[in-house]
Design a protein that fits this description.
The complex is a heterodimer of chains A (288) and B (371).
Chain A: H1 2-38, E1 42-43, E2 49-50, H2 56-60, H3 64-97, H4 100-111, H5 118-129, H6 134-141, H7 155-180, H8 183-191, H9 196-220, H10 222-225, H11 227-234, H12 241-249, H13 255-278
Antiparallel strand pairs in A: 1-2
Chain B: E1 5-15, E2 21-31, E3 35-39, H1 46-54, E4 61-66, E5 69-70, E6 81-84, H2 96-106, H3 111-124, H4 140-152, E7 158-162, H5 170-187, E8 190-195, H6 198-204, E9 207-212, E10 215-220, H7 222-227, H8 232-237, E11 242-252, E12 255-260, E13 263-268, E14 278-283, E15 289-291, E16 300-309, E17 313-319, E18 325-331, E19 341-345, E20 352-355, H9 357-370
Parallel strand pairs in B: 3-8, 3-9, 6-7, 7-8
Antiparallel strand pairs in B: 1-2, 1-4, 4-5, 9-10, 11-12, 11-14, 12-13, 14-20, 15-19, 16-17, 16-19, 17-18
Classes of the chains: A mainly alpha (288), B alpha+beta (371).
Chain lengths: 288, 371
């Protein structure tokens, strides 16, 4: 009887899980393994991949030029994360505390721009900020400046583009954390003699820290890899790890080195997620 | 005996955005050191009243004074009152020690002094040794004690308690009731307590304030609330009662002749009534008398409909010829007929004469239509 039951359960579960397993295997596991294997391969004079084991690619990663770009990339990512926190916190607080009708509208205002392709939006910024762009022209019209300002092709422009692209990833977890905050805790704090500032630092901030943390993970990691932002707005003056990788696969035509760089990015990501888990972070709020 | 007023509400109104009028012309004086309970069903405005005293809700009109000082301009953190919240509102990221010490830290009290006072508080609520635990590691009753200790550490003049025992099970609730009462006597702090549980209100309070639809119906000592209800709502809300509706027929001094559907009856009252006033007579089930034989004088004939045994008491329901049901309660074990005709009557002093609620409506309509 039990055997029969077991049997009748096997086929449907295989049918359900099977496609997912195949999908994961073909599109995630095998490509990742391929990248890992390739990172230990070499190239010949014609830039063809040669399948022989070598650690040269990893040795090249410590090239001073690369190290400088890692540092620059981490700085840009850190700045992006901090700016996102500073901007998104009050914004999320505001949404979480408004009436439900307005809440939906505000929420949509964050989401709607992301229905447009991010590449197009970043090009939009380039047009907007260019020396002959809308912003400079208006500033000239009003006589606020005498010659156009160079907004573009600086690390700051890259950070602006990153913040713009990744802002919603900070808002969503923060909003969830703030929404969950029990209002009576704030009342209790005030009741016990705490002014607004004390309540913020002693109650609100510690209790929404998980939101800040998962938001930071979700902003920091992509901002190491969004190479098109630094390409379009940074103009090669603010390269990030993503640019290095992209270049190896495109103009550099050194796929094994690109694979090794990708491995570095994957390892940084895993370490950050591990750190997040160690600090009591919840995987579900990362959408994993 | 002259008691000092500590909290005074004068003509207080609360109207929420959208016009919901939840507290109406509330006048209430709370005396120093007393245990006053605001009692009413949900939505009667009792919690709103408490929150206005604490400073979490603004007063729409009227004034609230604490120790003679108006608190309208004071933020919650400036008021010398503390609150025990219904949901406890313990800070989940702080230990029990830090939770209790919070109020003193805000006052920038010396660290040694904080340690001393916190341990005193923990002893007071019998939670010594729980300093390093977190709220999530405590049971409901223990959380409740921490909430009380946290509110008391600032030595408030008035402690506000918003249904503090609502989430506890019956047995624990009874135990905490006694403990709260003990604490209040020991510390001699004024307690303003909000509950919808009338037994809790009657057993713990020095005075009970009954609210209904934002109106303060009656403020009195528990005995008076039960024995001398001043409004029909209070009579029916507190305990069980039998209500007879009627109309004042004639008045001879304190004796008032009432015309009921089932006949005439005389009642006595210290309050003034006018001829033709709509009134109700309220008689508690345990005060109703009965006889199996016809009786001279006033008696209503009825038939025993059913009896319900509820442990300590036996409830009997008698139906009058007009369909009106009368409840009688006797201690279990007393001999009560099971069926048949009975004649019910009562002592004149056991019948409480109250202005009928329909009088209010009648007067209100009268004012609109004829003035």
């Amino acid at each position: 009887m039990t055997k029969q039951k077991f049997k009748s359960n096997t086929l449907p579960s295989l049918v359900m899980i099977g496609p997912v397993v195949l999908w994961l295997a073909f599109f995630i596991v095998i490509p990742l393994l391929y990248v890992a294997v390739m990172s230990f391969c070499g190239i010949d004079e014609q830039y063809n991949i040669v399948f022989r084991f070598t650690a040269d690619n990893y040795k090249r990663l410590f090239n001073a030029n690369y190290v400088q770009i890692y540092a620059q990339s981490l700085t840009i990512a850190a700045l992006t994360t901090i700016i996102c926190i500073v901007l998104a916190y009050p914004f999320s607080f505001f949404i979480a505390r408004t009436l439900s009708k307005k809440k939906a509208i505000l929420y949509m205002l964050v989401i709607i721009p992301f229905w447009t392709n991010s590449l197009i939006r970043i090009y939009g910024w380039r047009t907007f900020l260019g020396t002959n762009g809308w912003l400079n022209n208006r500033l000239l019209d009003f006589g606020l400046i005498s010659s156009p300002i160079d907004f573009l092709f600086k690390p700051s422009a890259t950070v602006l583009g990153m913040v713009y692209s990744l802002f919603p990833y900070m808002v969503l977890p923060l909003y969830t954390a703030i929404e969950k905050l029990d209002k009576s805790l704030l009342e209790a704090s005030a009741d016990l003699g705490a002014k607004g500032v004390s309540t913020f630092f002693r109650i609100i901030l510690p209790l929404t820290a998980s939101g800040i943390f998962s938001g930071s993970i979700m902003v920091f990691i992509p901002s190491l890899g969004y190479f098109f932002v630094s390409d379009i707005l940074g103009g090669g003056n603010s390269d990030i790890i993503g640019n290095l990788i992209e270049r190896q696969f495109q103009s550099g035509n050194n796929w094994p080195l690109g694979a090794a760089l990708s491995m570095v990015l994957i390892i940084i990501t895993l370490l950050l997620v591990k750190l997040y888990q160690k600090c009591g972070g919840d995987m579900e709020s990362l959408g994993v | 005996m002259d008691k000092k007023v500590i909290v005074s509400l004068k003509n207080v109104n609360k109207i929420y955005d959208g016009g919901n009028h939840v507290v109406k012309n509330l006048d209430l004086d709370v005396y120093e050191g007393e245990f006053l309970t605001l009692l009413g069903s949900s939505g009667c405005g009792k919690t709103t009243t408490l929150r206005m005293i604490a400073g979490f809700e603004e007063v729409t009109s009227g004034t609230i004074t604490v120790e003679g000082e108006s608190i309208a301009e004071k933020e919650p953190y400036e008021r010398n009152v503390n609150t025990v919240f219904q949901s406890y509102a313990l800070f989940p990221h702080m230990t029990i020690y830090d939770n209790i010490a919070y109020g003193l830290k805000m006052k920038k009290t010396d660290k040694k002094e904080i340690a001393k006072r916190v341990s005193e508080m923990l002893d007071l609520v019998q939670l010594g040794g729980f300093e390093n635990r977190y709220p999530s590691q405590l049971s409901g009753g223990q959380k409740q004690r921490v909430a009380i200790a946290r509110a008391l550490i600032n030595q408030p003049r008035v402690l506000l308690l918003d249904e503090p025992l609502g989430a506890l099970d019956l047995k624990l609730r009874k135990q905490m009731q006694l403990e709260l009462k003990r604490l209040q006597r020991k510390l001699n702090i004024t307690f303003i307590y909000v509950t919808h549980d009338q037994e809790e209100a009657l057993s713990m309070s020095d005075r009970v304030a009954i609210m209904n639809n934002g109106i303060l119906e009656q403020v009195d000592i528990p005995e008076k609330i039960y024995e001398e209800p001043q409004t029909q709502f209070v009579a029916t809300f507190i305990g069980e009662t039998n209500i007879f509706e009627g109309c004042v027929n004639s008045i001879k001094g304190k004796d008032i002749d009432i015309m009921l559907e089932t006949g005439y009856v005389t009642a006595r009252s210290e309050n003034t009534f006018n001829q033709n006033d709509m009134v109700v007579i309220s008689i508690r089930p345990e005060r109703i008398k009965y006889s199996e034989q016809p009786k001279t004088g006033f008696a209503l004939k009825g038939i025993i409909k059913e009896q319900v045994y509820v442990g300590s008491v036996l409830k009997t329901i008698i139906v009058l010829p007009n369909g009106h049901e009368i409840k009688i309660e006797r201690l279990a074990g007393q001999k009560i007929p099971v069926s048949g005709d009975v004649y019910v009557y009562w002592d004149i002093d056991d019948a409480k004469l109250i202005q009928s609620e329909s009088n209010r409506i009648f007067n209100a309509l009268n004012n609109i239509m004829f003035t």
